[in-house]
From TrEMBL, chain A:
<protein>
    <submittedName>
        <fullName>Phenylacetic acid catabolic</fullName>
    </submittedName>
</protein>
<dbReference type="Pfam" id="PF05138">
    <property type="entry name" value="PaaA_PaaC"/>
</dbReference>
<dbReference type="GO" id="GO:0010124">
    <property type="term" value="P:phenylacetate catabolic process"/>
</dbReference>
<dbReference type="InterPro" id="IPR012347">
    <property type="entry name" value="Ferritin-like"/>
</dbReference>
<dbReference type="InterPro" id="IPR007814">
    <property type="entry name" value="PaaA_PaaC"/>
</dbReference>
<dbReference type="GO" id="GO:0005829">
    <property type="term" value="C:cytosol"/>
</dbReference>
<dbReference type="InterPro" id="IPR052703">
    <property type="entry name" value="Aromatic_CoA_ox/epox"/>
</dbReference>
<dbReference type="InterPro" id="IPR009078">
    <property type="entry name" value="Ferritin-like_SF"/>
</dbReference>
UniProtKB/TrEMBL annotation, chain B:
<feature type="domain" description="FAD-binding FR-type">
    <location>
        <begin position="2"/>
        <end position="104"/>
    </location>
</feature>
<keyword id="KW-0479">Metal-binding</keyword>
<dbReference type="Pfam" id="PF00175">
    <property type="entry name" value="NAD_binding_1"/>
</dbReference>
<dbReference type="GO" id="GO:0050660">
    <property type="term" value="F:flavin adenine dinucleotide binding"/>
</dbReference>
<dbReference type="InterPro" id="IPR001709">
    <property type="entry name" value="Flavoprot_Pyr_Nucl_cyt_Rdtase"/>
</dbReference>
<dbReference type="Pfam" id="PF00111">
    <property type="entry name" value="Fer2"/>
</dbReference>
<dbReference type="InterPro" id="IPR017938">
    <property type="entry name" value="Riboflavin_synthase-like_b-brl"/>
</dbReference>
<protein>
    <submittedName>
        <fullName>Phenylacetate-CoA oxygenase/reductase subunit PaaK</fullName>
    </submittedName>
</protein>
<keyword id="KW-0408">Iron</keyword>
Length: 251, 355
């Protein structure tokens, strides 16, 4: 009974607990998953930092600064776990200019560009305060759905980090919702729908295309549980309902 | 980045025929201020090949000493070395404590903890038991400890002493695979069904705040399933995977018949942390090994072409990367390679770890 392959163990819901007991392919996929999260958080925080000064009032600027701080902190939590695998955390945090963006009308679909693993959506530039808040709401809710998936990952230290991160990210989406309510109340919401139209398909693309073979491989390792399409429709439902509350419609 | 420190072996205590407890005195005590349940990763050279193995700390925080328990495994290079060759006064090298097999402790807590250990899986659980009971005077601990037989129970006497010291707060249930006991339930393997039976008669699972499990994989799965079926959620169940999953056997060395021939030699210039060394090396040796054999502290971890920690950039010449599970196509196009998988092809190769 003592002899059980790690493959069977993982397929049956077992958890791995340290770099010393992860098999090579698992390690690669786990590191990729972590790099995707870290890069997206760092790029997201870096992009949002520039909009702090665009906040129409001090409350908005405090909220934006808090989001930048906490997203950076969330990146750090996961980067520490990559560090357990030998990654050079200091070098990693600086290995790419996180503020870099493509043109607003670049069309990269779900592809990643340059040398980092950020989700494609984080390659597009924000245009002013209202646009930043819309992006933050839509992506915040997408991250919420994605984190529900990733708190189940079979690498226990990462699942624990994501359990700490999830409520913080959920609060960011709430702050964005409150920010949009305030813009509406102050009559500044005229351009919000065009921002929704811009960001909706790009956030939707962050759920990925969903290669079934790859998904199965990841599911066998306990790194994924729910197919991309299901996650995406869960987000569409939630985000659609939230937009409805703000008098906006999905793109 | 992880770094190795020297630790002096100050005591070797044989707990059972096949297991020792090492007491270690680190050169840098601050670096070894561990949390209960953490492990140390040792490195040791066996016939020129470095092997890394992790062992859990078994001492409690309050004991003021650093101890690891090492059970001998058939064919396990490090565990045999520790059990048979290591002497008091020897020096070992280990990275500072790592691992998240713990929950935060608070003297104000009045919690009920449940631990499951299989064989040498007791080591981190013992550290948790001792630290928790000493830190939280109002908390209780129930330990289910699975072994083949009485003779293989590591720390049997120590657990008895702890039971007496923490009367009413620590209970230990020994489940033995082969030796018969007064209570039938305590004989056999710790399976999902066995847990369910224990939860009916012996353990109030509903009052459990956190459960710790360390042992062989099938045992952990069965226990976790039983715990979930009885209402615990994932955040309440802490796993520590048994060390058996680590590759510990030395592989036989491949000796190249062509070694020494000029055609098999390459000149490799390696830049690391701002300085460059030029090395004559065999073409059947990886860039990473060439760097490390020349005392360069080149980064590496998995040496399986996977974690990308050993990534470097080829500036001049050509290498052959035999496996790549980490780098994307665009990185390869830019000249990045995994140095642990890359062999020189041209007579001169220039690589840079800093780019």
């Amino acid at each position: 009974m003592d002899d059980m392959s790690l493959k069977d163990y993982l397929a049956q819901g077992g958890k791995l607990t340290s770099p010393a007991n992860v098999p090579p392919r698992y390690r690669a996929e786990l590191l990729k998953l972590m790099a995707t999260f870290v890069d997206s958080e760092l790029a997201g925080a870096a992009g949002f930092a520039d909009t702090i000064n665009d906040g129409p009032g001090i409350k908005e600027r405090i909220a934006a600064a808090k989001i930048v701080l906490e997203k950076t902190d969330n990146a750090d939590k996961v980067l520490k776990i990559m560090g357990d695998f030998g990654a050079d955390e200091a070098r990693y945090a600086n290995h790419h200019p996180w503020t870099s963006r493509l043109d607003r009308d670049a069309d990269i679909g779900t592809r990643r560009v340059e040398q980092d693993m950020r989700l494609a959506v984080f390659n597009y530039p924000l245009q002013g305060w209202g646009d930043a808040v819309v992006m933050n709401l839509l992506m915040g809710q997408a991250v919420g759905v994605q984190l529900e998936e990733f708190t189940k990952v079979s690498y226990q230290p990462l699942a624990e980090a994501f359990r700490e991160i999830a409520p913080v990210e959920a609060r960011h989406a709430e702050l964005a919702f409150e920010g949009m309510q305030r813009l509406n109340a102050e009559g500044l919401g005229a351009n919000l729908q065009s921002s929704v139209d811009y960001w909706w398909p790009r956030v939707a693309a962050s759920f990925g295309i969903g290669n079934p073979d790859r998904f199965e491989a990841l599911r066998a390792m306990g790194l994924r549980h729910t197919p991309n399409a299901e996650l995406k429709s869960a987000w569409e439902e939630r985000a659609g309902a939230t937009l409805g509350q703000l008098g906006l419609r999905t793109a | 980045m992880a770094r190795f420190h020297d630790l002096k072996v100050t005591d070797i205590h044989r707990t059972i025929r096949d297991a020792v407890v090492l007491t270690l005195e680190p050169d840098d005590p601050a670096a070894f201020d561990f949390i209960q349940g953490q492990y140390l990763t040792f490195r040791h050279d066996f016939d020129g090949e470095e092997l890394r193995r992790s062992y859990s700390i078994c001492s409690g925080k309050q004991e003021g000493k650093l101890q690891v328990g090492i059970k001998r495994v058939d064919g396990g290079a490090f565990s045999n070395f520790a059990n048979e060759e290591l002497k008091v006064g020897d020096t070992l090298q280990a990275m500072q404590p790592m691992g998240g097999f713990h929950t935060p402790l608070d003297p104000a807590n009045a919690k009920n903890y449940l631990g499951f250990a299989g064989g040498s899986g007791i080591t981190p659980v013992l550290s948790i038991v001792k630290t928790t009971l000493a830190t939280e005077p109002q908390s209780t601990f129930t330990l289910v400890y699975a072994n083949r037989g009485v003779a293989t129970i590591m720390f049997r006497e120590e657990l008895e002493d702890l039971k007496n010291r923490y009367l009413g707060r620590l209970s230990v249930i020994h489940v033995l695979e082969q030796d018969a006991q007064e209570i039938d339930l305590f004989t056999g393997m710790v399976t999902e069904e066995k847990c369910a039976a224990l939860f009916r008669a012996w353990i109030d699972v509903e009052s459990v705040d956190t459960a710790f499990i360390c042992g062989p994989e099938p045992m952990m799965l069965g226990i976790a399933k039983a715990l979930r079926d009885h209402g615990l959620n994932d955040a309440q169940i802490k796993f520590e995977l048994f060390a058996s999953a680590q590759p510990g056997r030395l592989k036989s060395k491949v000796v190249s018949k062509q070694a020494g021939k000029q055609a098999n030699q390459a000149e490799v210039a390696i830049t690391l942390d701002g300085s460059t060394q030029t090395i004559m090396t065999a073409k059947d040796m990886t860039i990473l090994d060439a760097a490390r054999q020349n005392a360069m502290d080149a980064p590496f971890a998995c040496t399986a072409g996977v974690c990308s920690t050993c990534r470097c950039r080829v500036i001049e010449g050509e290498v052959e990367m035999v496996a790549n599970h980490a780098l994307e196509d665009y990185e390869v196009e830019k000249g990045y390679v995994l140095s642990c998988q890359s062999f020189p092809v041209t007579d001169r190769v220039v690589v840079d770890y800093d780019q």
